[in-house]
Amino acid sequence: MSQRSFGRDARTARPLDFQCDFTQNADGSVLVSTGNTKVICTAFLEDKVPGFLKNQGVGWVTAEYGMLPGATHQRTLREAAKGKQQGRTVEIQRLIGRSLRACVNCQDLGERTIVIDCDVIQADGGTRTAAITGGCVALYLCLWKHRKKFFSPPLAGRVAAVSLGILDGQVLVDLDYEEDSTVDVDMNLVKTESGRFIEIQGTAENRPFSQEQMMQVLEQGGAALDTVFEKQKQALLNYGVEPAWLTR
Amino acid sequence: MSQRSFGRDARTARPLDFQCDFTQNADGSVLVSTGNTKVICTAFLEDKVPGFLKNQGVGWVTAEYGMLPGATHQRTLREAAKGKQQGRTVEIQRLIGRSLRACVNCQDLGERTIVIDCDVIQADGGTRTAAITGGCVALYLCLWKHRKKFFSPPLAGRVAAVSLGILDGQVLVDLDYEEDSTVDVDMNLVKTESGRFIEIQGTAENRPFSQEQMMQVLEQGGAALDTVFEKQKQALLNYGVEPAWLTR
Amino acid sequence: MSQRSFGRDARTARPLDFQCDFTQNADGSVLVSTGNTKVICTAFLEDKVPGFLKNQGVGWVTAEYGMLPGATHQRTLREAAKGKQQGRTVEIQRLIGRSLRACVNCQDLGERTIVIDCDVIQADGGTRTAAITGGCVALYLCLWKHRKKFFSPPLAGRVAAVSLGILDGQVLVDLDYEEDSTVDVDMNLVKTESGRFIEIQGTAENRPFSQEQMMQVLEQGGAALDTVFEKQKQALLNYGVEPAWLTR
Amino acid sequence: MSQRSFGRDARTARPLDFQCDFTQNADGSVLVSTGNTKVICTAFLEDKVPGFLKNQGVGWVTAEYGMLPGATHQRTLREAAKGKQQGRTVEIQRLIGRSLRACVNCQDLGERTIVIDCDVIQADGGTRTAAITGGCVALYLCLWKHRKKFFSPPLAGRVAAVSLGILDGQVLVDLDYEEDSTVDVDMNLVKTESGRFIEIQGTAENRPFSQEQMMQVLEQGGAALDTVFEKQKQALLNYGVEPAWLTR
Amino acid sequence: MSQRSFGRDARTARPLDFQCDFTQNADGSVLVSTGNTKVICTAFLEDKVPGFLKNQGVGWVTAEYGMLPGATHQRTLREAAKGKQQGRTVEIQRLIGRSLRACVNCQDLGERTIVIDCDVIQADGGTRTAAITGGCVALYLCLWKHRKKFFSPPLAGRVAAVSLGILDGQVLVDLDYEEDSTVDVDMNLVKTESGRFIEIQGTAENRPFSQEQMMQVLEQGGAALDTVFEKQKQALLNYGVEPAWLTR
Amino acid sequence: MSQRSFGRDARTARPLDFQCDFTQNADGSVLVSTGNTKVICTAFLEDKVPGFLKNQGVGWVTAEYGMLPGATHQRTLREAAKGKQQGRTVEIQRLIGRSLRACVNCQDLGERTIVIDCDVIQADGGTRTAAITGGCVALYLCLWKHRKKFFSPPLAGRVAAVSLGILDGQVLVDLDYEEDSTVDVDMNLVKTESGRFIEIQGTAENRPFSQEQMMQVLEQGGAALDTVFEKQKQALLNYGVEPAWLTR
Q: In the beta sheet, which residues pair with residue C122?
């Protein structure tokens, strides 16, 4: 293994940082940084639900994902100008939406929708996992701001995500862009704070992987997520979110 | 657990059938049936590659997925008429493409593209896994037809897929539509004949799942795929494909 | 005239076959085969009408047409992926819709819509006429399934279609793809079982045609349609549709 | 039959007028008026051909059709603003293109394309037949302007079109909008000056029609077109086009 | 300065003409000609308002702009066929809409919308200013036709527009196409008959301009507009519009 | 006049700040803040030109504009998801492109394109003027990074923009969102550092404005821009851009 960015070993994730209230107009807003990957996550609470949920008394959580044209080394074409979201974008925002839906108790939410936007302003690998981890914080900030609207907080627990790869048989945690381009296998784990799985997605870009490697990925991914959950918690506590909100 | 379709137990997949040469114009064509799910898979070999691969001497494999409007109990809107593929469609065809790319040695393919189309004519759950399993057969038939063009068959080995779910803590193999709508967790496994992983995708629609449940899914999915690979092999042998093609 | 496919003479249509209930989810479903052209026709009865017919107590019949990418010798681009139906597709599905509207008494239908989908799975010329002939069968099966909803069957009579061409002055009935590419004139006739015209469309691709040739086309087309109507009737009778439904 | 517009009987077409050089920038331009229907037809000769004809030494003729939003009694939505041409528009412009292609000898044209635009500025029925009749004039004016480029005029002969309807069993020639909305059958005939058929399109909107009615339509349509061809000829002669151009 | 078209000096606009009732189906219709630039302007009064104005008791004015493909020396691509309006078109029609909104008292209009369509049939520079000047006339004709619907005419006063340019330091009034392609600065002024500004848009395509040049543009533009307003008034008076309508 | 934000008087602009290198992947990057309006501006130098400039030895400057969904108090719909840029977006990015083109000497640039992206992350009025002012800085940083590629810096001078409004007859400089919603007139001035005009755009949303008010706008806008140019210069000097680059 060549030297990894930020001088870390195979099992260690990049420095993670949350800048809450990064922008001021959304109901919840955070800039999440995972190494050099930076994503603005904002959340809004809207008093309506999609058509298929009307008059059922339950709410919804949805997410959208975008990448600024200037976020990458080569300029990325602007999807709005092309008139179409790429397949990759569609796939990512569906993953984020499913993952963040697991944070919320849609019964307690009532007929409301939380919309989370994750816009990458600087890309260096792991944008989708950063978006999930940061999107959860934005969602919590949004509900915290509107906490008076709810009898009990419509929360099911925090979620976070981490990427992993297998390179020449070795498992690497939290890939940067350069690593992401070279690994044989690319995995994303989304789990709850209580250690259960929300999503697992693994793709053998080059070389299929064994059952044993799968086991290592699950073990190291879980360990890395423990740290992520701790930082998420600190960020929310520092913001002033009540500790009771963070332990369900 | 209520009675499962086709009188099977939790670990058993639905009857699987391949009708090779289902249509006659494509280079390879098969109707794959998994219980009541039926998918037409066709494959073409084209003497060109996408722009990003030009002049590199390597080939490409790509897939598209569609659902006939009449395939479902409620008519599905025609995507061509709406002018847009749904997010679900985009996500599925990217999965199929990645999976089938693993069948092929793109170096040996040369500057050619294999395009696999998977069109669902009758839907009863598991359309994407049927598409992968059947798409692999169509791909083999296509290359068999053109075998004289290649010094050595540009094959990396067969792939197949199966869906699994977790319902009230019990793992179910090969979900039909009704089961798919009720399970807490929905997983798709794509593996090689040699038992290695190509793709794993698991989503906890309702309830996060434990490490132990993950282990059961991996075990039972692997066992179910052994049967699938055997039927795939028989279909190709019956068609006349050389046994040597089926063992790499 | 070179030898025609299926060893037929200029006045004879290709073998015609209807496979009712080809798929099981739609309200009516048939696989129609005209020689090597195969089209899946499905029909649904929906309890709504387009905006321009709301609250008028009458129903509507509409059709959509598609071609699987693998239906042709050279793969056809998927219209859903291009984000647009081709002009040819639009023109064909408007023809099918107008033709099948003539089968139905929209007053007796009430505020309901019948949607017929015609998807070509194998193309060898005459896909639009096969779609009309088969679409009529799917429509009848759909109404037969829902017959208890109607005081009197909302039927105006069966329709069927046939293609004709003029090649070096000779009229040919039911062109296959190769003939279709070479004829000077391409005609489609849509008639009722009682021998009246629903649609006539003739195009001189290469050489304008005379009044006398027009007369021959009308005469031979009418004769060929008599056979088509007989086979349609047998298919519906064999399915169990009441004879009284087939004679109006 | 109620009184027809312009005090005419069933067999008589509306007053027809050609205003050549109606606009000055196109290579050929004419305002064609059929009663109150007015269509601007322009033609350009371009030194290129569509991709499928490249390097074959032959030319192409294509047409586009549009309707100004203000052309109708109720404003029509602008297709450019909707981002899509309607099915009706697509169908009409394909008909115009096929018809005008019959005017031209594509071998003599060389690798050039004639593009004819037909834009309706006032609509009162028969816009597509007016577009064909006027488009032929614009095409002739365009070739006349560029006549020095050709060794022999790349002309195959003039074409013109007329609409007909059947109302309560009676054939009507050249329907205005009100008639068009009420007839049982709507036909369009496109013929050459020499009396041969280019296109025939007939649709029984309400009531199928008989063989005998078909005969009457063909006879009366032919007679009406004789007059149209004469007026077309006069317009071109008055403009200064050489008589020899008008007799092939 | 080279010789200007129509033999005019730098301060003089091209001949301006209004042909009222140019087409007969719209509520108001005029062909406006500015030299060789010709634009059909039509107006409709519709008994509805956009969503954002519902139930507020006020009306709306909106405009759309188009260019016939045959209006230019080189054929322009049809926006409806491309499936998209160009940026230039969007920008122009927003300008026309804002300008014509200033003609109308939206309170007195009630919950109605006036839609003005400006379609260029011949382009020689200044199409957007001609569209505003002519659109105002179409709007007046439309309201005049419906005058019985209003207690008091919902008018705020006439508007008109003129283009100006700076070429080698000299201000030119009412640019034709050739001038428009060469000037250093391109300005559009929209004013009310009472001499107040509605819109000013100036762009230094090549060379930034000075405060002093700005002053000359404002002065000469104002003078040119005095003449335009006089001709607009004459056209409306000749049509029969009550003089009292023209002086507010 | 009610109290203005940041305690300023009518003639004073909001605090302006440039954070150079805000992101690290683009060739030039700056976060520009005008009060609470924040825009990320990035610039790339690409070795190609649009089709209409090929083989002419000159370069091009283009700009795109976007607004993050979370930038506003009410969430804005994502244009990429709608599949279309709004008219307002198209108009703004054309303005930015024209303005920044004036910074560059396209001859000296050679066959290269500078693409500037301006993405609003927090909106409080004046986003288009902030985008121009910040876009100029990003453009300079981009050229500074690539300075070795040019014999002489391909610069024509800096540009900057400011918005102004007229409210109850009083001119206000640099409107925030609340002011922008209430003013009668909305103007944008784009000038060069040498005090010449690049663009002027003024719209009387509610009440036409007089010549005298126009004069005040020009005077106060010019004064405000002097301060903007000074801050731009300081930001670039602090970054290390050579003073000689800032004085042309």
A: C38
Q: Is E164 on the interface with D (CB under 8 A)?
A: no
For B121-146, the three-class secondary structure string (H helix, E strand, C coil) is EECCCCHHHHHHHHHHHHHHHHHHHC
Record: contact A208-B196, CB cut-off 8 A? yes
Q: What is the mean pLDDT of chain C?
A: 95
Query: In terms of residues, how long is chain A?
Result: 248
Residues making up the binding site of B for phosphate: 88, 126-128
Q: Which residue type, as a one-letter code, is found at position F82?
A: K
* Residue at C183: amino acid letter: V
Single-letter residue type at B98? R
- What local confidence, expressed as pLDDT, does residue C113 receive? 98
User: What subunits touch chain E, counting only 3 or more CB pairs under 8 A?
Assistant: D, F
pLDDT tens-place string over residues A93-124: 999 999 999 999 999 999 999 999 999 999 99
The per-residue pLDDT for range B31-68, each reduced to its tens digit, is 999 999 999 999 999 999 999 999 999 999 999 999 99
* Distance from the D69 Cα atom to the nearest Cα atom in chain E, whole angstroms: 7
Among F90, F196, F214, whose Cβ lies nearest the Cβ of E209?
F196
Taken in order E48, E53, E59, E63, the sign of the CA dihedral is negative
Q: pLDDT tens digits for F28-71?
A: 999 999 999 999 999 999 999 999 999 999 999 999 999 999 99
**Cβ–Cβ < 8 Å for D126, D156:** no
What's the CA gap between B156 and D138, in Å, rounded? 61
Instruction: For chain D, give percent helix, strand, coil, nearest 5.
Output: 40, 30, 35
Question: Residue B58's closest CA among B105, B26, B19?
Answer: B105
| DSSP strand pairing (B113-122 vs B60-67) | parallel
CA distance D75 to E26: 7
Sign for the CA dihedral angle at F214, F220, F223, F227 comes to: negative
| pLDDT tens digits in sequence order for chain D, 248 residues long | 568 999 999 999 999 999 999 999 999 999 999 999 999 999 999 999 999 999 999 999 999 999 999 999 999 999 998 888 988 999 999 999 999 999 999 999 999 999 999 999 999 999 999 999 999 999 999 999 999 999 989 999 999 999 999 999 999 999 999 999 999 999 999 999 999 999 999 999 778 999 999 999 999 999 999 999 999 999 999 999 999 999 75
Q: What single DSSP character describes residue A36?
A: T
Q: What's the pLDDT score for residue E1?
A: 54
Whether the CB-CB separation of D235 and D227 falls below 8 Å is answered with no
Read off the pLDDT of residues E5-16 as tens digits, 9 standing for 90 and up.
Answer: 999 999 999 999
Angle at B52 between CA B47 and CA B56, to 5 degrees: 65
Q: Among candidates F171, F111, F105, F168, which has minimal Cα distance to F139?
A: F105
Tell whether C142 lies on the interface with B, counting CB pairs under 8 A. Answer: no
* Residue F101, Cβ density class (10 Å: 0-12 exposed, 13-18 middle, ≥19 buried): buried
D192 has a chain C CB within 8 A of its CB: yes
Nearest to E220 by CA among E1, E10, E3: E10
Inform me whether the pLDDT recorded for F1 exceeds 80: no
Q: What does the alpha-carbon distance between residue D43 and residue D20 come to, in Å, rounded to a whole number?
A: 12
How far, in Å, CA of F7 to CA of F35, rounded? 11
Q: How far apart are CA A88 and CA E201, in angstroms?
A: 41
Q: Quick one: average pLDDT of C208-231?
A: 96
Residue type, position E120, single letter? V
**Sheet hosting strand D16-20, strand order edge to edge:** D16-20, D28-34, D37-46, D113-122, D60-67
Do the strands A159-167 and A170-173 form a parallel or antiparallel pair, or are they unpaired? antiparallel
Q: Residue F2: which residues within 8 A CB-CB, separation 6 or more?
A: none
The verdict on A195 touching B (C-beta cutoff 8 Å) is: yes
